[in-house]
Amino acid sequence: MTMKSLLLLVVVLTVIAGNGVQSQLINLQILTVTGTVKCTQNYTDTNAPPFRGAQVQLLSGGIIIANATTDINGLFNINLNVGVTLNGILINVDILETCILKVTTPLVHCNALLTTSGVLVSSITRLSLITGVLVPERFIFVALSSLDCPHAV
Ligand SMILES: *[C@@H]1O[C@H](CO)[C@@H](O)[C@H](O)[C@H]1NC(C)=O
Ligand SMILES: *[C@@H]1O[C@H](CO)[C@@H](O)[C@H](O)[C@H]1NC(C)=O
Fold this sequence. Notes:
Elements: H1 3-26, E1 30-36, E2 55-60, E3 63-69, E4 75-81, E5 85-86, E6 89-90, H2 93-96, E7 100-103, E8 119-126, E9 133-136, E10 140-142
Parallel strand pairs: 1-9
Antiparallel strand pairs: 1-4, 2-3, 2-7, 5-6, 7-8, 8-9, 8-10
The chain binds 2-acetamido-2-deoxy-beta-D-glucopyranose (2 copies).
């Protein structure tokens, strides 16, 4: 092999490796649903404290796909493997975009002046087209704890 053809081989291999990285970004293997829950019934109240230790469910048409608990900052994080079936739901970005998040822990747990019933619910949206990160749109308080239909929100 001449020096010239060796150089050419290196260039070709580099281009192939580069394409590999690119297609990995497009064919996402892990999707993350993450966000913060605040201790309020009023989503416009940006000064509300975090809702710590709250149970968060990820629902698809009333079926629980996954759940999580918020940390000390009210933050929750759910990682899902694409192509895996959870409770009969095949995980991909299209199905996740139709899911809702439901906080099942009553607000009275973070503030004794708040309600013992009702839930916070939010639709979720993809942060950007090139990442597999989805975030809550806004957590709205709903008085009915049985609510789990995304179309009713
Ligand atoms: C919600 O919070 C906003 C911002 O703090 C406030 O202006 C508004 O009055 C609040 N609404 C209710 C119903 O408490
Ligand atoms: C959370 O999800 C796991 C796995 O689906 C399930 O075993 C568990 O019972 C759920 N916990 C709650 C509190 O929903």
